[in-house]
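#data-curation
PF: Archiving a pair of folding outputs for the training set. Convention for this channel: one message per protein, sequence first, structure tokens after, nothing in between. First:
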Amino acid sequence: MTDATGGRAGPVRIAWGLPDAVLCWLAGYLGAVLASFPLYAGHAGGGDLDSRLVFGIVLPAQQLAVVLAVLYVSRIKGQNSLAEDFGFRIRLHDAWVLVAGAMLEVVLTFALFPILELDPHAKNQQLLTDLKAHRDTGTVVLFVIGAVILAPLVEELLFRGVLLRSLLRKVPPASAVLLSAVVFALVHYIGDPNTLPFLPALAGLGVVLAVVALRTGDLSASMFIHAGFNLTTTVLFLASGAKLS
């Protein structure tokens, strides 16, 4: 790389780190709050928002806020490239690992049975509960777009992109993988306390995704595994319930 005078340009200084990962996560919650506020203000009946508003407006606003925050961090503290800074790449030939994500979901679900038996009153995650309340085709389509397509892209960018790469500068790879997986699980719990019984499965998913991202050097395969995991969860949940209308 050369500068404008023809001389050799110096290396790009990477200045982002763990505080930026936290700020990107907080940006997502701010985006969700800002999107929710006018909806609640116009919600005459009180109570929870309609699932279609949650899936179609609130969650996309949260995800968009995270992406914008990561883009900002990359621009002012990195190389102004999500691919170079955080490994955000999508290679369609990695799509076969959707199957690995599906298998991982089934294995972790079976592994959770003993834990769920200890708590017969365990509830589904809030998003699945919302989906159960409205299983019309439009709501399901919005849910699939958000949970199966957007969530893997955004969460991999945040947790295996910004967070994991920040941790790798501070601690050995094994510790970075474990810490990122624990944070991944705890963030889901903070957003939805109903996920408490599922924390071991979420942490296990986080470990697998972090190892894959570490070994491949980017997020392409981990995004597809994440998508396969979420897709299988959605299909199994829908298959166990009411018909679509």
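PF: Second:
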Amino acid sequence: MKTVYFDHNSTTALKPQVLEAMLPFMVDQHGNATSRHSYGRTARAAVEHAREQVANAVGAYSNQIVFTASGTEANNFAVHGICSNLEPTQILTSSIEHPCVSRPALAMQAYGWQAKSIHVDANCNIDIQHLQSLLKAPTGLVSVMFANNETGAIQDISAISQLSRQHNAYMHTDAVQALGKIPVDFVALNVHAMTVSSHKIGGPLGAGALVLDKRIDIQPLLHGGGQEKGLRSGTENVASIVGFGAACELAVKNLTAFDMQTESLRKYLDTGLSKLNAVIFGHHGLRIPNTSFFAFANIDGETLVTALDKKGFAVASGSACSSDSDKPSHVLLAMGVDEDLARGAVRVSFGANNTLEQVQHFLATLESELARLKNLTAIAA
């Protein structure tokens, strides 16, 4: 039996159309995009076409797109690059940020910066009053993710951006989990910098981008041959960049269908989870359509994830990029969730190819595994 994949927030399968666009640059067309010969010129043209595709997907101009090797690199680039050109004050990040934003902010303390955390409420939404309070002190950068990778909570980035700008702070948002799931418009969000990534939208691993306001002054993260207008040196990963562009074009084209399909599955799942007495985190707030994050009292999340995997369902216990830690989700703790309940957290994140029949089978399997685990717990007691 083939395992059903319910972990699309971690990574997604490469779409066939994306692979088709990439193949020539993986086999026959192997030119370096900085070379002057015909191979190099073809590679350069492909990179610039992909740049336009990414820009069109996020409502930006192509000259605002800086390609990176990942969303993690783009987030590090934003934090380090923006702050390196400013006098040290404070960096504000939300308490639910991905580690590839929060840890770079902490690292900047070695250069005289203060890293402070913005509170969220029980629905995983930014506490605007707390942000206002923090902004009373001089602030260089505010970074708040558009959509949370665990709960799926969507933040009002345009309002947060406006408030940050009023206090002369630069604004960055990690939109990795938003792209392809909800509309993403760089201008409407009113941010100075925004991170997006390829492998979350059916594109290849190894490609991301930082979208930059053309007026922003930013220090390169990588120095070398001067690629990406001197902002990100290193020979371009042409095939992955081409795939990223193709994936962006498809994501925008299929956005409405993705929304309708995955939201209907999530609603069905949430109804079934409620009948099983699950606690669904952040369900009273606005969420991306494909994500449900839940727990059951007295059931360990890692144990349940392993049990479901053995029964043919791939789900997650939180963020795949934070799997080196055995601590409960920092997102749930920031929301005020009890630590014991947080240890039980399981995330389901749907893709466009998931079906209602799969969800029905999942709920039946989940009910069976819960009964088995509860029985084992009772015997052990």
